[in-house]
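Posting for a labmate who doesn't have an account.
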Amino acid sequence: MEQGFVKVAAVTPKIKVADPKYNAKVICEKLREVYAKEAKVIVFPELCITGYTCADLFIQELLLEEAENALLYIVDATRGQDAVVMVGLPVVRDGRLYNVAAILQNGKILGMVPKANIPSYAEFYEGRHFTEGNTEVVSFYLKGEKIPFGTNLLFECTNLKGLVIGCEICEDLWVANPPATNHALMGATVIANLSASNVTVAKDQYRELLVKSSSARLLCGYIYASAGEGESTQDLVFGGHNLVAENGVILSESKHFKGETIYGDLDIQKILTERRRMGTFGKEPQQSYVRVPFTIQIAETKLNRTFGCMPFVPGDEETRNKRCEEILSIQSYGLKKRYEHTGLKTAVLGISGGLDSTLALLVTVRTFDMLSLDPKGIIAVTMPCFGTTDRTYDNACRLARVLGVTLEEVDIREAVTVHFRDIGQDMENHDVTYENGQARERTQVLMDIANRANGLVIGTGDMSELALGWATYNGDHMSMYGVNVGVPKTLVRHLVRYYADTCDNRELQETLLDVLDTPVSPELLPPVKGNIAQKTEDLVGPYELHDFFLYYMLRCGFPPAKIYRVAKIAFVGQYDDATILKWLKTFYRRFFAQQFKRSCLPDGPKVGSVAVSPRGDLRMPSDASARLWLEQIEELK
């Protein structure tokens, strides 16, 4: 439960229809298994104490009495355990029969939530036996104990901020206005669904869609436990389809007909952050709710949840290719609109033979094709200086030729040398002035060529560089439209790879592959024996780490300690703990110190859920203190 993680479980026991005593024992056996896995929210299926398929046996007094006794047996088995357990059974209140979820913890019944929507269509005939649940919470007495009873019940953990559980039952999920909507608007971060949804062809896909969409729309965790083997097969078959979802993502899912217990590590802090971020999450419903408190022991959850080391890059090839095509379209359509608005027909961009300028050139060519403009209107400018290597220079020239754009070469060595002489900069002093002077000279050249040619300067810098401030202020930091501003470095590589794989031009493909194989560098220091002397990732750290930090900081709102924890899981075997911590500190130090560069960022398109535009996703003061974040990192050492 530390850092907001809560392990939950959806359990499908193999029951016997109309045998509550047997079913209670099976449920308790399952509980012992789940307790051993340290799950803190445990959900069993609808009516699992009796079986969902009892039909007219639900009217039998003996069955109802035995169900009550079985519930008390299970309650007793929860003593000494702090996990919240939910089991389904039929309950009689004021002469009416209800389909109920009983919420148990540590030898007590915290509450009972009746099913709100009773289906009586197709294969369902619950209206023959059950009454729709009351929303207003009333009192129910069992063996002298007063128990809150109603749909408008929430179960709130008093010592884990944000863990609030709401409950709905099977059909409640399938209706137009599920109870979970109000539960979430009233603060529930976890929705439990006790279900007995039968198997029909393709129904599992729709069920999964409902669970995913509910967790996404309500910004919550969703635990779905369904009936399985043991239910009557007189007319229906039940497959035990269990699901755990969070914010639209399935964390775990059972196989059909296996009776699997599944687990998921819900991130309550992430859910709360997402709700704070979305100002349109919703208003509280005009209904009264009763909140039932409970406590759990706070300990570090043993995470089974995985974290991909490249959160911006889809893992499977098909999805990745689709994502790459979509991003290229966003970039090119964004630039297309700018050209339609200005009426210009010329583009100017600096090409270095590196990844970013290559991607920007590819996007610009694509845009001109969409506009039916002559690619010769794209002026690709190579500006060799003190750090330029033959490899990158040759690749830049080859790209321009193969793509059919206009290549201009402006050797800036003499101009920079004169400038350094004017300001008294020692040519042997390879400091920040030595580096930035070259970057600013290149931008001046591009701006002036754009004026001469009546065109736009297309920016090449990517989002990872902006996050780290790895750009020269008023140098490569500046342009008239930055097509890469929404693309992290780890994704730039895949976009260029995708273009190489789909371009149907052998020479272009070979050139792009060599660009991909070239170390990332601004090439501002003289080469060593003809090779790149200045490798960016040696200086600021691996971009795959920084992109990981960026995603979990901005998109998920994780503090440094939590990012460090999940990074150790994601990069196990790749980076040791000390290396991750070193670059995490670098990331936060640079991220806060370099906001002033992002505050005057040129226009450019947002392409994903993370962006750093001061006009959109990141409205951050340039002089904000990083103390809180850096102190937490120091505490991790």
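Reply:
Got it, the structure tokens are right above this. The CA atoms of residues 419 and 551 lie 40 Å apart.
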